[in-house]
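Anyone have tokens for D-tagatose-1,6-bisphosphate aldolase subunit GatY? Sequence:
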Amino acid sequence: MANNVFNSIVGTALADGYGVLGLNVFDELTLRTAVEAAESQGASLIVQTSVKTVKAIGAKRLSDQFKLATSLSLTPVALHLDHCPDRAVISECIREGWDSVLFDASSLPLHIATAQTKEVVEEAHAQGVNVEGEIEGIQGVEDGIGSDDVPLLYPIETVIDFIETTRIDCFAPAIGNAHGLYKQVPQLDVQRVRDIVAATNIPMALHGGSGLSSEQFSELIAAGCAKVNISTALKKTYIEGFRSYLTEHTSASEPLTVIEHVRQNVRRIVVDYIHEFGSSKVIST
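Reply: yep, here.
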């Protein structure tokens, strides 16, 4: 296991029973605002980037933006590559300083997924980078990756063998969760999370966090979901921030005023999730 900031963040969260926000940012505004919001709460944070975002901004430029945004941060912040089936992008992000990568092998036959994930782990660990593994697709499409088909679930024993064989640092289980907006209240298999954590002692990553209830978050975090991913909720907040302001202020002509309005909305949702997941170290007086 690579011992870096990502490992420290999720390892501590698993041991202490809280969840760390894994937030999918997509520009400098959301990146900087999220880091500042987390620091204001004394909370650790995992900044996540999709393959689409990496390709749109560029890996080096994105890495530079992250370094600048976190250079003065007093709380731990990790940079994570979300759902990536592309080995070339994985390698590029490892070279450019990501702290962890999710190699999404859910579309591959199990034996190939295991062999390739093991190769990614060896490459990443050699550079001090952690690896999140996935062999069971999370339902829904996010940033052009994924499927709306019901995912194949492997027996618990198969999942445990995959984790032990590949030596991944974190696992993304399929438990009835989905990317995007839930059309109905999801029935989540919390016991599956408990069983995998009990057998492997590695943190689980909860995907499809946008739209889950406080009770579901609480139960899943207690079961071992030390990393909780949020993407759709941030996108909605960002878009609605611009839309609502410009609807109410039709003659607005100062971009910085509009941007500050959006920043405050983004900050609010980040702080709310940090408190929801129990990772804030700020004590209210």
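The longest strand covers residues 77-84.
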